[in-house]
Amino acid sequence: MTQYNYDTLSAATNGLKERGYTLDFNLSENCLVCNTGKLDIDDFEIVEFHRFEGNTDPADEAIVYAIEGSQGEKGVLVSGYGISAEGMSAEMAKKLHENLNR
Domain of life here (predicted)? Predict the structure, then answer.
């Protein structure tokens, strides 16, 4: 498996889009949504992620997730973490954060 490393958030999102992760997912309380519909927690897997930490501002901390849906959907989710983390259900938080420790 090829390991990808990106220096910036924009490089990561652009690199993933070039590799076919073209949908833009948004985080809802207990699902991911995009212009083609929604994916419930059991309907997607996190294939890879890239974490970026702000040098001076903790609000700049973000994670880019490469997401694959059970029906072949491929997209990107950009989410803040730390003090900038968005509201989500405990179940969604567990799914996203489990992947950070692998």
Answer: Bacteria
